[in-house]
Amino acid sequence: MKVTFNGYFYKDEKENIEHAAEVFNYFFNIPGKFSFNLYSIPQKEISNLNFQHFNKPGPTDVLSFPLFSGINEIKKLNPHNEETLGDMFFCRPILKKNATEFHKGLIEELQLVLIHGLLHLVGYSHLNETKLRKKENEILDKVWNGLSKD
Questions:
Q1: What class does CATH assign to 2-145?
Q2: What are the pLDDT digits (tens) for 104-121?
Q3: Exposure check for the chain: N or C terminus, fewer CB within 10 A?
Q4: Average pLDDT in the 21-26 region?
Q5: The predicted structure's pLDDT at residue 149
Q6: CA pair distance 64, 79, nearest whole angstrom
Q7: DSSP letter string over the chain?
Q8: Mean per-residue pLDDT of the chain
């Protein structure tokens, strides 16, 4: 799965984000040439998007805007076509604040919100928080501890 970076990302951030996206793709076995757009934007901009699209005031760490209804629709697409799953927006100041608050490094926090955002791009929702968090934790375990050949 290809990540199209927009905004500033350090080399090690890009490498770790790409690694997390590869692990995510392993879990869902998404065929074809899929990509998603990843934007790093300021607090004011993410606050505006959050209010505009979700009617929530203030900034947040990540917002996702899927182009498909879910993983079943995605898997039915022609694997020979290049497809974009959607757009994801990060807010670096909020990510740094959360990393400090939850005693994580910034890379770890980036990977966490990336997996969370990707789950939204393939149809997971906060309407089923338990299912979302379970899959998020399952994938993050493999991102942070490695995949085993079971």
A1: alpha beta
A2: 999 999 999 999 999 999
A3: C
A4: 94
A5: 45
A6: 23
A7: -EEEEES---HHHHHHHHHHHHHHHHHHT--SEEEEEEEE--HHHHHHHHHHHH---S--SEEEEESSS-HHHHHTS-TTSEEEEEEEEE-HHHHHHHHHHTT--HHHHHHHHHHHHHHHHTT--GGGHHHHHHHHHHHHHHHHH-----
A8: 94
Residue 123 predicted with pLDDT over 80 = yes
Place of tokens 């074809």: 32
Contact 122, 72 (CB under 8 A): no
Tokens of 130: 């338990």
Alpha carbon 112 to its chain centroid, in Å, reads 8
